[in-house]
Design brief:
GO terms for molecular function: 4 iron, 4 sulfur cluster binding; epoxyqueuosine reductase activity; metal ion binding. By secondary structure, the protein is of the alpha/beta class. It has seven helices and five strands. The protein has helices at residues 15-25, 43-59, 71-78, 89-108, 126-140, 154-164, 176-192; strands at 7-11, 30-35, 63-66, 113-116, 143-144. Strands 3-2-1-4-5 form a five-stranded parallel β-sheet, sandwiched between helices. Strand 1, helix 1 and strand 2 (30-35) form a beta-alpha-beta unit. Helix 1 (15-25) crosses helix 6 and helix 4 (89-108) runs parallel beside helix 5 (126-140). The longest helix is centred in the middle third of the chain and has 20 residues, at 89-108. It is globular, with a radius of gyration of 16 Å.
């Protein structure tokens, strides 16, 4: 297949979410991974996820841009939404921050198009994500590729691929609030032996 000359900036949150998406895009775009995730906490977790993506990108010879780890900006954006459940208003604000930053970087560095890996997660609403992506596209005057990567077993395929690659797989989205929710769900499952 002939590679499209369009330069794409692919926002990614972690290697397990990226592996399947990159396989889908690398034959069609001049691809660069963009790692901007100020929501990921604590710092130790952020460093683990970043190292996994960077090492993998270098191994498969895909360009990667590591953006700043600006937790203060993220905290300011979600202020007042700390108690929102995962998937609610806090998450939408988080998506806006990350996709707007991706679009800004793409526009300022002469990319043709941008997208994100986040819709591969069964916990992420692709309609919401794509709406936010389109909004960032208009704001920064750069094309956005809408996608729902979890469709047609994308998530299941990503899990298999990430296990084969022996990636570190986290058990929460990224922020301390999602970690707390994840721990609560695990406690309930253990208490009531829910599978």
């Amino acid at each position: 297949m002939v590679k499209n000359q369009e330069k794409m900036l692919l926002h990614t949150c972690c290697a397990p979410c990226a592996i399947f998406v990159v396989q889908q895009l690398v034959e069609h775009y001049d691809l660069t991974i963009f790692f901007y995730n100020p929501n990921i906490q604590p710092d130790q977790e952020y460093q683990k996820r970043k190292a996994e993506v960077v090492n993998w990108a270098q191994k498969i010879n895909i360009k990667i841009v590591e953006s700043d780890y600006d937790v203060a900006s993220w905290q300011q954006i979600i202020n007042g939404h700390e108690d929102d459940h995962e998937g609610g208003g806090r998450c939408s604000l988080c998506f806006q921050l990350r996709l707007s930053k991706t679009a800004e970087y793409a526009q300022q560095h002469n990319y043709d198009i941008f997208t994100t890996t986040m819709s591969i997660s069964p916990h992420k609403n692709a309609v919401v994500l794509n709406g936010i992506g389109e909004q960032a596209s208009k704001e920064w005057q750069i094309k956005y590729l809408p996608a729902d990567w979890k469709k047609q077993d994308g998530f299941k395929k990503a899990v298999v691929l990430s296990k084969e690659a022996n990636f570190y797989r986290q058990d929460y989205c990224g922020c301390l609030y999602s970690l707390q929710e994840s721990k609560s769900r695990r406690t309930l499952k253990e208490k009531y032996e829910i599978i």
